[in-house]
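C-alpha cells incoming
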C-alpha cells in the first residue's frame, strides 16, 4: 500500500503524481492534508480557463479566486461595487469617460508588475477574441477597430475607459465585476501567444494567448491555477505575490464528483473537506452527523428550460403557454429542490432591482390540453430535451417528462455532461434545454439582456444571448431593454424591468422553475468557509483548517 494521502500530496511534484492520487479509491485516503482544502463538485461544465472566453458557472468561481479585476462586487452589500486593482475612479460630467487609478506595488503571480497597460491589453484581447462573453464589453461601443483608443492606459497607474452612451454608472461598474474583465499578465500572455494567419473569420495575427490560457494561468489572485483536467480536477496553489491578504492554505483541489451519495460518503469518511452537490436528503443527513457542519446562501442563479423557436411546434404561442402549465411546481418545491431553492417564475432573481415575485403558473393539464388543441396539436407531439447529467436538473427533467406525457407530449431526454449540453445549446441545435443562468454581474441588465435582447436573430448574430440561443426575436423588448440602460432614475428603471418580466412571463419561450439556494456540507475542521451571494463570490482564500 502507498503512503497516506497527506504524505503523497505533500511530496507530489508532477501531474502524474497528482493523477495517481486522484485516481485512487476514496477509502485509501486517511485524511485530507492540513494545508489543503479538497472540495467535491460537479465541474463538468468547464470548457476553458481563459477569462476572456470562459462563460460557465464553475469556471467563474475558479477565476474569481485566481484573477483580479479593476472593481469587484461587495459580498457584504451587493448594491455596492468596491475597488479591487483600482484604488479609486472618477466619471466625467457627460457620463462617457471612466478613469481608474490603480493601487501601487501590485504584482502578478509571475512577479511582473501590474500596470494600466495590462488592464488595457486585457480589454483589447477580450474584445478582439470575440468569444462568448465579449458582448459584455462590446455593448459599451467597444470593437476590434476602436478598443485600443476607447480602453487605454494614459500612464502606468491610470486606465481610461470611454463608453458610447451615458449609461447608468452602476450598470457600467457592475459589468466590470464580471469574469471577462479579469486582468491578465500582458508580458506573460504575449510571450505565450501563437502567431495566426488572419482570415475573414479571424482578423488578427495572434491568438492573444488563448490557446495557452485555456489550461494555463496569467493572473494575480490569492491563488494561482496549477492544473485543470476536464471532468477530473482543478488544482489551485497559493500565490505568494498576491498584494492582499495571503491565502491561509497552500492549495485548493476541486475534485470532480457529481453524485450526491458519493459526495456524502466521501465527506463522512473524511476523504473530502466540502461537498458541493448534495441533494436535499443527503444534505439533511450530513447536517445531523457529528463533525460535519452545513452552510447555505441564496443565489441569483435561476433554473429554467427553454424552447427553441426553430422547432415549428415549439414556436406556436399556445404551445409555449401550455408548457408553463405542464410543470408540477409544488411537487418540485417539496422534493427535488427542498432546501436548495425556491419556486421562481420570472427572469430577475429576488434581490435585484425590479425583481417580481409573480407566480401565475401551476400544473394544469386540462388548460394545457386546451392550448395544444388550439395550436392544432391535440394529439401531442414528440420533442427532445438536452439535460446535463447532474442533479437536480436530471430529476426535474424526468418529472417534466411525466407531466408532459399527461398532455400527450412525448419527451425524449438526451443526457450529457456540462460541456456537451452547453455546446449544443450555444449552437442552437437543441429542441429544449434545461439549465441554469447566473447573473454575470449584479445589475438587472445582466438577466434582462440575455432573456429579452436579440438584435440579430440570424445564425451569424454576434449577441449570443439566451433569446438568440432559442431563436426568439422579441424586437420590441430588445428596444426597451436598451432604453433601460440610459435611465438614471432608479424607480423608473425598476418599472421598465418589471414590465419586461411580465411580458416574458406571458409570451417568452422560457419556463422559469426556481431560484437557487446554494448549500454545502463541510468538515468542522474547516474554518471560515462561506458561500457568497453570486456564483463568483465563493472565495476560498480566507479558509483555514484545524
Amino acid at each position: 500500500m502507498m503512503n497516506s494521502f497527506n504524505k503523497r500530496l505533500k511530496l507530489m511534484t508532477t501531474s502524474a503524481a497528482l493523477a495517481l492520487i486522484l485516481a485512487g479509491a476514496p477509502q485509501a485516503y486517511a485524511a485530507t492534508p492540513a494545508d489543503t482544502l479538497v472540495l467535491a463538485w460537479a465541474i463538468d461544465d468547464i470548457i476553458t480557463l481563459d477569462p476572456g472566453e470562459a462563460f460557465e458557472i464553475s469556471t467563474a468561481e475558479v477565476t474569481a479566486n485566481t484573477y483580479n479585476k479593476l472593481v469587484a462586487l461587495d459580498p457584504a452589500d451587493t448594491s455596492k461595487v468596491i475597488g479591487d486593482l483600482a484604488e479609486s475612479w472618477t466619471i466625467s460630467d457627460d457620463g462617457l469617460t471612466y478613469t481608474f487609478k490603480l493601487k501601487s506595488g501590485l504584482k502578478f503571480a509571475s512577479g511582473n508588475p501590474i500596470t494600466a497597460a495590462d488592464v488595457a491589453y486585457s480589454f483589447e484581447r477580450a474584445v478582439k477574441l470575440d468569444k462568448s462573453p465579449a458582448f459584455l464589453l462590446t455593448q459599451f461601443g467597444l470593437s476590434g477597430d476602436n478598443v485600443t483608443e476607447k480602453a487605454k492606459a494614459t500612464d502606468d497607474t491610470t486606465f481610461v475607459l470611454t463608453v458610447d452612451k451615458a449609461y447608468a454608472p452602476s450598470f457600467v461598474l457592475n459589468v466590470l465585476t464580471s469574469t471577462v474583465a479579469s486582468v491578465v499578465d500582458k508580458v506573460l500572455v504575449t510571450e505565450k501567444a501563437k502567431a495566426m494567419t488572419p482570415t475573414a473569420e479571424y482578423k488578427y495575427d495572434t491568438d492573444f494567448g488563448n490557446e495557452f490560457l485555456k489550461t494555463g494561468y496569467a493572473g494575480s489572485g490569492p491563488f494561482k491555477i496549477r492544473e485543470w483536467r476536464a471532468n477530473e480536477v482543478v488544482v489551485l496553489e497559493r500565490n505568494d505575490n498576491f498584494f492582499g491578504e495571503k491565502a491561509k492554505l497552500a492549495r485548493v483541489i476541486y475534485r470532480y464528483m457529481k453524485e450526491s451519495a458519493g459526495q456524502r460518503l466521501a465527506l463522512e469518511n473524511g476523504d473530502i473537506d466540502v461537498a458541493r452537490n448534495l441533494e436535499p436528503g443527503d444534505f439533511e443527513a450530513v447536517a445531523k452527523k457529528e463533525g460535519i457542519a452545513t452552510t447555505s446562501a441564496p443565489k441569483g442563479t435561476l433554473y429554467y428550460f427553454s424552447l427553441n423557436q426553430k422547432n415549428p411546434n415549439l414556436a406556436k404561442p399556445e404551445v409555449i403557454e401550455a408548457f408553463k402549465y405542464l410543470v408540477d411546481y409544488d411537487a418540485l418545491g417539496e422534493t427535488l429542490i427542498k432546501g436548495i431553492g425556491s419556486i421562481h417564475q420570472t427572469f430577475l432573481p429576488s434581490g435585484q432591482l425590479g425583481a417580481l415575485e409573480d407566480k401565475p403558473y401551476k400544473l394544469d393539464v386540462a388548460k394545457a390540453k386546451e392550448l395544444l388543441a388550439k395550436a392544432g396539436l391535440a394529439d401531442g407531439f414528440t420533442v427532445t430535451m438536452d439535460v446535463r447529467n447532474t442533479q437536480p436538473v436530471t430529476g426535474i427533467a424526468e418529472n417534466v417528462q411525466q407531466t408532459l406525457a399527461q398532455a400527450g407530449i412525448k419527451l425524449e431526454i438526451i443526457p450529457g455532461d456540462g460541456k456537451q449540453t452547453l455546446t449544443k445549446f450555444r449552437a442552437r441545435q437543441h429542441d429544449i434545454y434545461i439549465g441554469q443562468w447566473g447573473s454575470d454581474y449584479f445589475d438587472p441588465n445582466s438577466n434582462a439582456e440575455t432573456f429579452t435582447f436579440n438584435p440579430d436573430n440570424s445564425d451569424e448574430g454576434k449577441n449570443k444571448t439566451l433569446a438568440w440561443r432559442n431563436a426568439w426575436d422579441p424586437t420590441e423588448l430588445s428596444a426597451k431593454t436598451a432604453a433601460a440602460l440610459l435611465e438614471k432614475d432608479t424607480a423608473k428603471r425598476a418599472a421598465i424591468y418589471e414590465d419586461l418580466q411580465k411580458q416574458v412571463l406571458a409570451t417568452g419561450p422560457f419556463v422559469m422553475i426556481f431560484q437557487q439556494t446554494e448549500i454545502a456540507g463541510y468538515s468542522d475542521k474547516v474554518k471560515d468557509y462561506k458561500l457568497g451571494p453570486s456564483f463568483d463570490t465563493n472565495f476560498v482564500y480566507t479558509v483555514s483548517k484545524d
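note: The radius of gyration is 23 Å.
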